[in-house]
Design brief:
This protein has one domain. The protein is built from 2 helices and no strands. By secondary structure, it is mainly alpha-helical.
């Protein structure tokens, strides 16, 4: 079974994201929001570590 794309630099992940966007845009928005929330949490955790070390 061949899994290569017929276009250069297109991966299975590209294809899956494109299909998800066509079928359910809310799912993509949820993932983007989750990513930004987790990114914020990561920064918050770093701040907690810095504050903890100062005590």
């Amino acid at each position: 079974m061949d899994t290569r794309a017929n276009k250069p630099r297109v991966t299975l992940l590209h294809y899956l994201v494109n299909e998800a966007e066509k079928k359910n845009r809310d799912a993509i928005a949820f993932v983007e929001k989750l990513d930004s929330d987790l990114n914020f949490l990561s920064r918050f955790e770093r701040l907690l570590v810095i504050c903890y070390k100062r005590k």
